[in-house]
Amino acid sequence: MNDNRHFEIDFHDIVTDPNLSRRDFIKALGGGIIIFFCVGDSSVLEAQRRGGSRLPEDFNAFLRVGPDGRVTLFTGKIEQGQGAITSLPQMLADEMDTSPDVVDMVMGDTSLCPWDMGTFGSMTIRFFGPPLRAAGAEARKVLIELAAEQLQVPQERLTVENGVVFDKENKDKKVTYADLAKGKTIERHAKEKPPVKSPSAFKVMNKPYLHRDARDKVTGTAKYAGDMRLPGMLYAKLLRPPAHGAKLKRVDTSAAEKMEGVTVVRDGDMVAVLHKDPDQAAAALAKIDSEFDVPAATVDDQTIFEHLLKNVGRENVVVEGGQLEQGEKASEIVVEQTYLDGYKAHAAIETHTALAQVEGNKVTVWASTQTPFPLKDQVVNALGFQAENVRVITPFVGGGFGGKSASQQGVEAAKLAKITGKPVQVMWSREEEFFYDTFRPAAVVKIKSGLTKDGKATLWDYHVYFAGDRGASQFYDIPNHRTSSVGSAFGGGGPHPFATGAWRAPANNTNSFARESQIDIMAAKAKMDPIEFRLKNLKDERPIRTLRAAAEKFGWKPAPAPSGRGFGVAVGIDSDTFVAEIAEVEVDKRTGKVRVKRIVCAQDMGLSINPQGSTIQMEGCITMGLGYALTEDVRFKGGMILDRSFDTYELPRFSSLPKIETVILDLPNETAHGGGEPAIITMGAVIANAIHDATGARLLQMPMTPERVRKALAAMA
Amino acid sequence: MAIVYSKPATGNHHFAKLQSKGVHMAETIAFTLNGQPVTVTTDGQRPLLWVLRTDIGLTGTKFGCGQALCGACTVLVDNKAVRSCVTAVRNVAGRDVRTIEGLSKDGQMHPLQKAFVEHDALQCGFCTPGMILTAYSLLRQNPEPTRDEIIAAMDHNLCRCGAHTRIIDAIQDAAAQMKGGKA
Fold first, then answer.
1. Same domain, yes or no, for A173 and A232?
2. What is the pLDDT of residues A606-618, one digit of tens each?
3. Collapsing DSSP states into helix, strand and coil, what is residue B141?
4. Chain A residues 256-295 within an 8 A CB cutoff of chain B
5. Which residues lie across from A672 on neighbouring strands?
6. Is residue A432, in this structure, part of any structural domain at all?
7. What is the CATH number of the domain that holds A323?
8. Given A259, A279, A401, which is nearest B47 (Cβ)?
9. Does A430 contact chain B (CB < 8 Å)?
10. What is the CATH number of the domain that holds B130?
11. Is residue A299 part of a domain?
């Protein structure tokens, strides 16, 4: 990709024409061969309409082959490090028989790209990928048709290599994609199910590719929202309450107003100071004298679980089968256990940032966001502007993990830009980032399960409270089972004292911790090796082969836990991908400190478009998972967040890292499943189970801090 | 300088002018930045990070926490890794400051940058400049670090995406390359 091509493409002025016809739209693109395609169902197109899209309305994605032979893909997806900027061009280039190097990406720009709900849920390759491949195949077909005409050769005799169409019988008869696209304006709709390449014909897909944005990122040229500069821009700092639910009682901005170059804005409850230097804005903020009414704290990180259980509403049955009563009767051993998980922060290194510029009745917002289109809707509502006059542009995002699905900072910047008439940047401090995070929710899981003495699972009665139901339904062969869920992971409200939201594989980390810990307890009760116990109770081929692949890589030798070796096992499913992990840990029984020495992870994800990218996502998941399993916990008192930076909220560090070994099952003939989240879901259970194997102590609450490990060890004695 | 005040109920904005009252004296600070002499006239107590990003417009140096806890803002001062978010610009007067933008030479990436690319030692890339410059500082002081020495030197730089093992591999590889006289 050309350096910064990502940001150079700009036809803002053209697409703001409110009556843009298809013909104008294609003209605006500069002609070439344009392939429209549709991702998802008609509701997606409806959302595009509602969002004030200027694009014609019968497609929601497109690509263009330009007269320079370059292919541009316009997508509402964003790049946050997950690698879509690398894997999407792989898919497109392979179907077009060209090189990913000629593919340019325009991502997350609401005026240039079709509507997209957001980049989350390991969905880009799963759901955007298949129609993209079909569009690539359609583009190739159009180019072949044009070449047949130009070369006077029947289509069947033509083939393509690296963007050059040639006659199979006379290789000198050839024409490039660039020459074919020159002077043409052709539009096509990709068919829903056109022939795409079979895996044996892949030249680019299923091959490892390095991150194509790496060069920009190691040289400091990659632009993030905070790196955007406009003449006359101001940096804003906003007055924040000390606690969620606090109300502003009194504010005196006079000392800040006396500072040179400071602009003070008061708009309702919003109090902001702005300056041409961000540090001076921060200094001005410190001079604001304010008083808030803080509601009395009724819950904290110690009492939250009791509080949650007091607020349990109606249970939704996720899945059930057989009869629980029958299961009870058939059970010779019954295990009842409660699992707890605290709030977690997303803690991306880039804080929420946005720059907004208002020109007349138009506003442009550059934002670090996973959801540019929903942010656009929020800005439309906040400013009262016409949807077609609001544009959100998403530069590189410095980590999201679900946390940047909420984009409050974009609205703040837009409001301040409107009020001051100047471009305004809002870059949250680390303290604001921890305060306004949409935390992974604290949750409780209660499980009653049963088995026979010879290790056949007979009963599974599962209740998850407030985590959400993703990953709650179990995949073991248990004849009598029921899984229910109360509350959701999203949106906060309910009994949570502050906002909660999607955190990488939402709900599944908590559910997999509970399920796989419980399965491990059952295996130990049956005095069986934890892998043998799982295999005995699995029927589905996918978790079986995944678990076997992990065991083989690890060099597993069966032994019932606790074996003293410190080996743990866990299996899970997320985004249609099965994952099996095996851990080796060392526990310092005196201090309670757990050292994870080795993690082996096998993943059944179907076709991996970029095995290099998939491997890196697995490594990232494993590393991030160490944090929620061992150290990360948001402490709070009522609406007051006590952990506000990296001094007390402990992320995994270089010294925390185990040896990581990954296996991706070779399944190129299967559809591509999700890859951004699965390998994180089993990190809690695999470590808990390894701690049990090392010591015999069972940890039932995350994070498994030294203090909790010492308590669990003491409880055994 | 304008005070903008809008009444909560109406949303009308009133503008007023105030007298300028400087808080700190501006001073002129000269230093070398990426091999070029620069002079800034500003309050010398301001953090180097914001002077680089705002006054000078070099945005490769990132803000992550503002408390020297994450390392995203790391720059080199006389070839040593320094957290620019807690370094007063006054303190680099007369010194040699290098940011990520100044690491390539004649369009050629530094061996550390190349190694980070070849090892895919990044994801979102936000911590990357700080990682590379911290590693640079390490290799200046210890050209052949062991894996444990790399971990110790890098341990206070945070990465949320989980590129750690690849970063260690990249640093080891770059150290070997640089020893070969390629730097």
1. no
2. 999 999 999 999 9
3. helix
4. 257-269, 276-280, 283
5. A606
6. no
7. 3.30.365.10
8. A279
9. yes
10. 1.10.150.120
11. no
- Has residue B49 been placed in a domain? yes
B162 and A265: CB-CB below 8 Å? no
Q: Token pair for residue A270?
A: 């919003």
Could you tell me if residue B53 is inside a domain? yes
Q: Are B78 and B94 in contact (CB under 8 A)?
A: no
Residues 72-131 of B with CB under 8 A from A: 72, 99-101, 103-104, 109, 113, 116-118, 120, 122-129
Q: Round to whole Å and give the CA distance between B6 and A345.
A: 34
Select from B102, B128, B163 the last residue of a domain: B102
pLDDT tens-digit readout, A673-701: 999 999 999 999 999 999 999 999 999 99
Mutation for B interface: A434, A435, A504, A654, most B CBs within 10 A: A654
Are A325 and A469 members of one domain?
Answer: yes
Query: What pLDDT sits at residue A405?
Result: 93
Q: What pTM did the predictor assign?
A: 0.93
From the list B70, B132, B162, the residue facing A218 with the nearest CB is B132
Burial of A114 per CB tally in 10 Å (0-12, 13-18, 19+): buried
- How many domains does chain B fold into? 2
> Are residues B78 and B141 part of one domain?
no
Residue A45 has pLDDT above 60, yes or no: no
Residues A486, A365 share a domain: no
Contact check, Cβ <8 Å, B162/A621: yes
In sequence order, what E strands does A396-528 have?
424-427, 443-451, 457-465, 480-486
* A143 and A237 in a common domain: no
Bridge partners of B96, per DSSP, are B32
Interface of A with B in 628-647 (CB under 8 A): 645-647
Rounded CA Rg of chain B = 20
Q: Is the pLDDT of residue A44 over 80?
A: no
Q: Are residues B119 and B144 in the same domain?
A: yes
**Domain CATH code at residue B67:** 3.10.20.30
**Is residue B12 pLDDT above 90, yes or no?**
no
Rounded to an integer, what is the distance from CA A410 to the centroid of its chain? 19
- With CA atoms as reference, the chain A residue closest to B123 would be A81
**ipTM of model over 0.90:** yes
Quick one: which of A628, A673, A153 has its CA closest to A343?
A628
